Amino acid sequence: MGVAEPAAGSSAAGARPDLSPRLYNPDLAPTKKAGRSWGGYSVFTLWANDVHSLGNYAFALGLFALGMSVWDILVAFLLASVFLFVLLSLSGYMGSKTGVPFPVMSRIAFGVRGAQLPAVIRGGVAIAWFGIQTYLASSVLSALLVTLMPGLKSWEQHAVLGLSALGWVSFLALWLVQVLIVSYGMDVIRKYIEVAAPAVLVTLFALAVWMFAKADWSIATDAGSPFTGADRWLHIGEAAALWVVVYGTFVLNFCDFTRSAKSNRSVLIGNLIGIPVNMLFFAGIAVVLSGAQFKLEGKVLASPADIVQAIPNTFLLVLASLSLIVLTVAVNLMANFVAPVYTLVNLFPQRLDFRKAGVLSAVLGLVILPWNLYNSPAVVEYFLGGLGALLGPVFGIVMADYWLVRRTRVNVPHLYTEDPQAGYAYRGGVNPRAVLALVPTAAVAVVVAFVPYFSAISGFSWFIGTLLAGLLYVALTGRGRGAPVAEDVDGEAIAVPSV
User: Fold this and answer.
1) What is the number of helices (H) and of strands (E) in the chain?
2) H-helix or E-strand spanning residue 164
């Protein structure tokens, strides 16, 4: 068994195949190599925004509350950042080489029709989190509005569908801002995150310095009972693994962004500064905030937003709050908006373009009433967590197919044809080997993540699912001298200008 090759009579290598309107439109097409706009700074600012999200700070501060010392946290983030740098560089290379978004990239392993499955899983998770992150940002905006105009406090007394009148105003305002940005496409998203990143980094650094000075330039190194011995290293490893899981969605569809990268060198430079260097900077800020707060009040804060609300100067409070809102919007656009847009375009390429899909995904993120989801731990843990556990096996199959089976050789034009003899037609457009590899390994990942018996290794469920799926897929497909090598044909003949 091996990679399917075009049979006699099918589209020849390098020739333009018959493009199917059910698989191809300008938003799904590969991008031309000339004129791509994402340089190393663009990739860096992507991480500069995303790493410093409020959710990530809540995660890091939670590690301190659980008993990890500041040094343990720094070691955990160092280990995770090195691993993420490798994963994201491998994933990013696929996008910069082929110029295609994730739903199209999935066609290589899953088939031109089977790729809908991983794309829908990724997009479904993102739509839910888009709504939740918008709600979290709107909470900061509501608190800021009440601070500036105390009379608005009365707007919080009555709720409709679980959200107060002020909450609705704040949520819809930020919802509209994000829809407007996305409606102008990926280039405007790039420009937004490039402007947001410096403001976010300066604000959070200033916040850490202010807290450090307030604590007389020293911090508590732990919350009173740090882990020791083997237990210490187990928690360091689990924290590092969970940090990688946080980016389990991003490593999957990183090619949505790197398809517009000027070169793979730009991706590597942006990743190097944006992941290991930036993540250690993030960890440093997190431990200063948690250690200083614990020294001052004997408790661990849940989010930087808690500190911001305590800033005594109104002008500085407004600036800091606006920075957190700008940050959350930037993170949402990158991590939770782009993925469902491409998913919807991939589902309905004849009806939707990037702008229409952006509006539709935003509407879906609204009608699910995300504040109710966020306030239901069971929904977040079991539904969204369950979908998230499936992303590891999907990633393992896609990466194993691209790097181990095909050895980076892809016939890009064949990703857009329904010719039954083309390279990614498989059986009716579905690769049964990918499905066979996904189903049992996804089940294992979900069981490990949620069954109490496996609680000791539940934090490693993403890794377990990824590794098992990749190994099983290679075993089912074959590789090495006996496996045929796929043709390597670029997509320049059917490419569109990058934006």
Assistant:
1) 22, 2
2) strand 163-164
Q: Which of 112, 116, 92 is nearest to 403 (CA)?
A: 92
* Nearest partner of 249 among 134, 162, 138, 119, judged by Cα: 119
Alpha-carbon distance of 430 to 355, in angstroms, equals 29
Q: Can you read off the two tokens belonging to residue 229?
A: 């011995």
Q: What are 256-279's pLDDT values in tens digits?
A: 999 999 999 999 999 999 999 999
Quote the pLDDT of residue 380: 63
pLDDT averaged over 10-residue windows placed end to end, the chain, 499 residues:
39 63 96 94 94 84 89 95 95 96 96 93 86 88 91 90 94 95 90 92 90 93 85 90 84 94 96 95 93 87 73 82 89 88 94 93 93 76 66 94 94 95 92 96 91 85 93 84 66 91
Sign of CA dihedral 344, 349, 351, 354: positive
Contact call for residues 242 and 463 (beta carbons, < 8 A): no
Residue 158: CB atoms within 10 A of its CB come to 9
What contacts 249, CB < 8 A, 6 or more positions away? Answer: 122, 125, 126, 335, 339, 388, 391
Distance CA 330, CA 183 (A): 15
Q: Return the closest-CA partner of residue 327 out of 301, 308, 300.
A: 308
**33-70: per-residue pLDDT in tens?**
999 999 999 999 999 999 988 778 888 888 888 889 99
Alpha-helical runs (H) found in 314-384: 314-331, 338-347, 354-367, 370-374, 377-378
What is the β-pairing status of strands 163-164 and 159-160? Answer: antiparallel
72-86 pLDDT, tens digit per residue, is 999 999 999 999 999
Return the biggest CA–CA distance within the chain: 77
Q: Quick one: 8 exposed, middle or buried, by C-beta within 10 A (0-12, 13-18, 19+)?
A: exposed
Backbone angles phi, psi at 28, to 5 degrees: -95, -15
Q: Collect all residues with Cβ–Cβ distance below 8 Å to 395 and sequence separation of at least 6.
A: 248, 251, 252, 466, 469
- Name the amino acid, one letter, at 383: F
Q: Are 46 and 230 in contact (CB under 8 A)?
A: no
| Encoded tokens for 268 | 């590597």
Return d(Cα 151, Cα 140) in angstroms, integer.
Answer: 17
CA distance 381 to 181: 30
DSSP H or E segment with residue 97: helix 70-98
